[in-house]
Amino acid sequence: MSINNIGLIGCGAMGSALARGMIGRGVVDPNEVYLYDLNEERKKTLASEVKANAASSLDDFIPLCKHVFIAVKPQDTEGLLYAVKPLVQPDQVFVSVAAGITINYIESCLFPGTKVIRLMPNTPCLIGEGAIVISTGESVTDDERKEVERLLKPLGLSIRLPENLMDAATGLSGTGPAYVYLFIETMIDAGVSVGIRRDVATKLVIQNVIGAAKMLDSNAQHPAELRNIVTSPAGTTSSALLILEEAGFRSCLIKAVREATKRSEELRLG
Ligand SMILES: NC(=O)c1ccc[n+]([C@@H]2O[C@H](COP(=O)([O-])OP(=O)(O)OC[C@H]3O[C@@H](n4cnc5c(N)ncnc54)[C@H](OP(=O)(O)O)[C@@H]3O)[C@@H](O)[C@H]2O)c1
pTM of the entire structure? Predict the structure, then answer.
């Protein structure tokens, strides 16, 4: 097994983001990356784009790889793991992005003691601005975990959490972009309703979100402090905030995240 080879199973949205991020930012050598997907065309298109190897079967590359990333849908994961099982080598690290599939479950489909890392990414990983929650199985060493964090760096921010918070991470962060998009879409409609052209409203709202997020990211102030700066006595912002509070804006968002977390718990395997 080469010390650096990487196998990636599943060349869909998340698998492509992983391959493009790791190869595009020069974290790995494309010659050392093997891509595999049941969908031949998807695999070949991605392999040709990132100049990696398109593997024709699991046997072709699994035994050669130090890291094997699994990026197929949760319902396809169990069958895949059983197909991978006879090919597992000692010291390989399996990295799964499948929502709801626990480390314990993956170990039980492979071998007890297999090195497993579980990720909860989100779609902004596609442009290197993702948030990735990472949990490690008991057999994974600190150095092995750090190596995977290094590989993931081009995809965005990685945060380590114990696996018992993975459903919460799914409800908050894996699902998070959808809440933000709904907010943005609604703000654009609001701009249109007060007379601003849709294209202009779109630009203004996106820049509002980027600017507000960057202010939060660049200084240590609490969101409420930054909100207070915008809120002058008897001004427009305080009128708007009153409406949002009366409509239960905060409790609505909290309930949405709790509901997504609960749904993730219901879908959990293992
Ligand atoms: N997209 C997100 O926002 C997001 C966020 C967090 C986590 N995830 C996780 O990421 C994983 C992948 O999601 P995705 O959105 O990238 O899915 P996707 O776009 O459907 O890609 C999965 C790919 O894997 C292929 N595949 C299925 N079974 C396979 C097998 N046994 N061997 C090789 N390839 C196989 C599929 O082929 P077919 O289409 O022919 O079946 C498809 O090309 C999921 O487990 C999901 O929970 C996704």
Answer: 0.92
* Number of domains observed in the structure of the chain: 2
The pick from 73, 80, 126 for probing ligand 1's pocket by mutation, whose C-beta has the most ligand atoms within 8 angstroms, reads 73
134 falls within a domain: yes
Report the distance separating Cα 39 and Cα 238, nearest Å.
Answer: 54
Conformational region of residue 136, where left means phi above 0, alpha means psi within -120 to 50, and beta covers everything else? beta
- Please state the atom number of ligand 1 nearest to the C-alpha of residue 43: 43
Ligand 1, CB cutoff 6 Å, lining residues = 9-15, 36-39, 42, 71-74, 76, 79-80, 97-99, 120-123, 174
Indicate which atom in ligand 1 lies nearest the CA of residue 123.
3
pLDDT tens-digit profile, the chain (270 residues): 556 899 999 999 999 999 999 998 889 999 999 999 999 999 999 999 999 999 999 999 999 999 999 999 999 999 999 999 999 998 999 999 999 999 999 999 999 899 999 999 999 998 999 999 999 999 999 999 999 999 999 999 999 999 999 999 999 999 999 999 999 999 999 999 999 999 999 999 999 999 999 999 998 899 999 999 999 999 999 999 999 999 999 999 999 999 999 999 998 887
My answer on whether 20 and 73 are in the same domain is yes
Host domain of residue 87: 6-166
Strands 67-70 and 130-136: unpaired
Name the residue at shortest CA distance from atom 20 of ligand 1: 12
